[in-house]
Specification:
- The chain has 204 residues and is an alpha+beta fold.
- The chain has eight helices and ten strands.
- It has helices spanning 6-12, 23-34, 39-55, 71-78, 115-118, 122-128, 139-149, 193-197, and strands spanning 17-18, 21-22, 61-65, 88-90, 97-102, 107-113, 154-161, 173-175, 182-184, 200-202.
- Strands 4-3-5-6-7-10 form a six-stranded mixed β-sheet. A two-stranded antiparallel sheet has the order 1-2. Strands 8-9 form a two-stranded antiparallel ribbon.
- Helix 3 packs across helix 4.
- It is globular.
- The N and C termini lie far apart (44 Å).
Length: 204
């Protein structure tokens, strides 16, 4: 395994800016808010960065996240949207996806961890799918992979927000045969979105 430290990783990309911050500040803000450098929050911050770029500057955006784990913190750290002010909606679908959208027009972008793309970064895929014990995948190795991969493991589409749904129970993770994304098995043979219970629709 690599013995690279987090400082080494930061030093290798001194000009990298994520959510308007240097990599060092980006990681420090995550640790201060979340309590530790959770890979899911780091990955989520990169997703927020892409969604913010797509939505554009000066847009008063609301957010929807499709999991209760890690991703809500990334949104709350790097945007004005929080659960408390109502600008962040959290769906307990256990799908690693978020949408930022203009609260006036309801037009925005959905970014998600694309499992097929993540296969090209095996540490990320194996971590997310729970295929490797934590002891066999050191945090420094996983974080280094995430920073190197950046947006290459995401997909992003423009959407129009149409409605929101309440929380769902957590279940065993399956891969939806329709969209190819991970979801709780308790939702049925397809994820909730592919069953017509989504909150957005694709747009050109």
């Amino acid at each position: 395994m690599s013995t690279k430290t987090i400082k080494d990783m930061v030093d290798q990309v001194p000009d990298l800016v994520i959510c308007g911050r240097s990599l060092a500040d980006f990681l420090a803000d995550i640790e201060a808010f979340h309590g530790f450098l959770a890979p899911g929050v780091v990955l989520g911050g990169l997703m927020v960065d892409q969604a913010q770029e797509k939505v554009g500057p000066g847009v008063e955006a609301d957010a929807v996240v499709e999991t209760c784990r890690c991703l809500p913190d990334a949104v709350q750290i790097f945007t004005p949207c929080t659960a408390g002010n109502g600008w962040l909606k959290i769906l307990d679908w256990q799908k690693f996806a978020l949408t930022l959208y203009d609260k006036g027009t309801l037009l925005g972008y959905r970014v998600w961890l694309d499992l097929e793309k993540a296969r090209r970064a095996p540490h990320i895929y194996n971590w997310y799918m729970g295929l490797v014990p934590k002891k066999d995948l050191p945090l420094e190795v996983l974080l280094d992979t995430i920073i190197k991969a950046r947006r290459s493991v995401f997909s992003c589409v423009p959407v129009r927000v149409t409605r929101l749904y309440g929380k769902r129970e957590k279940g065993e993770i399956k891969v939806c045969p329709s969209c190819g994304e991970a979801y709780p098995a308790l939702q049925g043979d397809q994820c909730a979105a592919c069953q017509g219970q989504g909150y957005y629709e694709p747009r050109e």
